[in-house]
Fold this protein.
Amino acid sequence: MEDIKTIYDVIVIGAGPGGLTAGLYASRSNLKTMMLEKGIPGGQMNNTAEIENYSGFKSIVGPDLSMKMLEGATQFGAEHVYGDVQEIVDKETVKEVITSDKTYLAKAVIISTGAEHKRLGVKGEAEFNGRGVSYCAVCDGAFFRNKHVVVVGGGDAAVEEGVYLTQFADKVTIIHRRDKLRAQKILQDRAFKNEKVDFIWDSVVEEIIGDGKVTGVEVKNVKNGETSLIDADGAFIYVGILPNSNEFRSLSITNEEGWIETDANMMTQVPGVFAIGDVRDTVLRQVATAVGDGSVAGNAAYQYVEELKEQLEKHNV
Ligand code: NAP
């Protein structure tokens, strides 16, 4: 594994909206900044067709906002580098950021690795993944033109993506385990008004059925225990998200569910290690809140690096 001897002021891990904003704030404060990303910049925004709750834009296509944020983040010299981070090792005044092929050094690290879609954990889900089972309506919706798809879940993602799928599918059936949606009211209203959307309430998917590709789902009503087979060409699963934080468990900064805990400055209990956006233990996970976290962390990292420099100079290190 190659060691890179340059010591960055800040390394941002993950270049979603939070990471890109942290990169912008840190580099604009003249910090030597690198943003490490293992996918494409923008994170989950790239899987979002229309973002209409990010202030300043009536509506913007997710990948377009990603590119605008990348331009903003790199204009003051922040580097954008491919890297799949495996671990951070805290050596107090310096942090080692270990990727699959290199070790980078930084005075401060900002973790912005986001979250990923939870699996439902039923028979057929893994077998038909990519053959009718999907976690991304924007990526796969067009394959279901004039077809019937089910969407599993009752949160913002299930309802928003369910409505999005109606531009392709003839019919979208949202299957929810309760009789009330968790999604924001405005999203619920859109779904209730859309003639192509119907609901199966109080029900869970027990199995995804298929023959080479999805042909239906077996559904159980949790109130009366009755099961039924729903014919469908696709099953979109939106049953929540899990933090991308396994690589940081050795720092003991995650709670029991894996979300990273921070103070109001986005600093974890390890001095110089910050966490922002969806991976953080927080109450609202939106582009806007990730951006807010990123600006706070970029600024706090600047303060941290300046104080560290002063202390090291005082002690002639
Ligand atoms: P979520 O808010 O956690 O909702 C998950 C949904 O899946 C809930 O309705 C839950 O049911 C259901 N569920 C969980 N486990 C299940 C299981 N095993 N079987 C069946 N159903 C199950 O997750 P999300 O919708 O993916 O959203 C994640 C975060 O992103 C949220 O903070 C959300 O606000 C945000 N987001 C925002 C937007 C937007 O602002 N436009 C869009 C997408 C996502 P219960 O309701 O019974 O718990």
